[in-house]
Design goal:
mainly alpha; two-stranded antiparallel sheet
């Protein structure tokens, strides 16, 4: 895969990450009552979606740049909403802090994780 196609893939992954970041930031406060416990289902599903996007980019392309683009897209979307939302979507509580920190940590771990391909039999 050429260098140009890697950069194009990274830009597309960045846009997808940004869209996911917007959607998940709006929905991260959704909860569901299961038995007597209140589960932050929006946070859980948002993190699963971020994980799936970044891991998918990491596995699909040989380079790390598309996975980095996807992770940055999510994080930058969060930052833009945090700066411009004025408390509309992001409250000052532990759930919001978890949403602001966890995708960045998750994406960073996935991007730096070693990529091992099986040895080819020539």
């Amino acid at each position: 895969m050429g260098q140009l196609s890697t950069w194009i893939s990274a830009v597309i992954a960045f846009v997808c990450g940004g869209l996911l970041g917007i959607l998940a930031t709006v929905a991260h406060r959704a909860t569901a009552v299961i038995g007597s416990a209140t589960v932050p289902i929006g946070l859980v599903l948002g993190l699963v979606a971020v994980f799936a996007l970044v891991v998918g980019c990491r596995l699909l392309w040989e380079h790390r740049l598309p996975a980095l683009g996807a992770g940055l897209g999510v994080v930058i979307a969060e930052i833009v909403i945090a700066e411009n939302g004025q408390g509309l979507f992001l409250a000052d509580d532990a759930l919001t802090m978890a949403w602001l920190v966890a995708p960045a940590v998750l994406a960073a771990v996935i991007v730096v994780w070693p990529h091992r391909r099986p040895a080819r039999a020539d």
